Amino acid sequence: MSTLYTAIATASGRDGRAVSSDGLLDVTLAPPKELGGTGRGTNPEQLFAAGYAACFASALGLVARRMKLDASHASVTAEVGLAQNDQGGFGLSVTLRVELPDELHGEAGRSLVEAAHQVCPYSNATRGNIPVELVVE
After folding, report:
1. CB 99, CB 77: distance < 8 Å
2. Strand 75-84 relative to strand 26-29: parallel, antiparallel, unpaired?
3. How many Å apart are CA 87 and CA 85, to the nearest integer?
4. Residue 21 is part of a domain; what is its CATH number?
5. Which whole-number Å values give the CA distances from 130 to 54, 68, 78, 127, 134, in the listed order?
6. What is the pLDDT along the chain (137 residues), one digit of tens a residue?
7. CA distance linking residue 137 with residue 133, whole number of Å
8. From the centroid of its chain, how far is CA 42?
9. Are the C-beta atoms of residues 77 and 71 closer than 8 Å to each other?
10. In 9-106, where does DSSP find H-type helix?
């Protein structure tokens, strides 16, 4: 596999800052109130959710074009859950809510979403590692 692009970012922890090497991403990090934090910054789960949603939406568009379908009005919402695992560490879970135009509901839409799940780099990276639920809306 040949690398097409490498993103580089540096973070100082859940309560600090994350910055990309080009400076375009520069965010304050803070644990959410639900985890005892101030909630006055973004957190890794939000960043992962935004990245996964954007990546999956892009994969959906690519697959739709290949299938000669119009998914230009589709949107993807990623819900990333954080939970404690049985080993004393933490794990993630993801629900991807894919909102499709009316003409793509039914079996065609479900096939499109399943095919995008095979193309998306985030889906390929997480497959077998964390549960990912696909919901077509």
Report:
1. yes
2. unpaired
3. 6
4. 2.20.25.10
5. 19, 31, 14, 7, 13
6. 899 999 999 999 999 999 999 999 999 999 999 999 999 999 999 999 999 999 999 999 999 999 999 999 999 999 999 999 999 999 999 999 999 998 898 999 999 999 999 999 999 999 999 999 999 99
7. 13
8. 15
9. no
10. 44-66
The amino acid that residue 66 corresponds to is R
Domain match, 1 and 21 both? yes
User: pTM for the complete prediction?
Assistant: 0.94
d(CA 131, CA 92): 8
Q: What are phi and psi of 86, to 5 degrees?
A: -70, -15
Residues 14 and 50 in one domain: no
Asked whether the beta carbons of 9 and 25 are under 8 A apart, the reply is: yes
| Tokens 């959906």 sit on residue | 60
Q: In the numeric block, which tokens belong to residue 76? A: 């993807």
Identity (one letter) of the amino acid at 5? Y
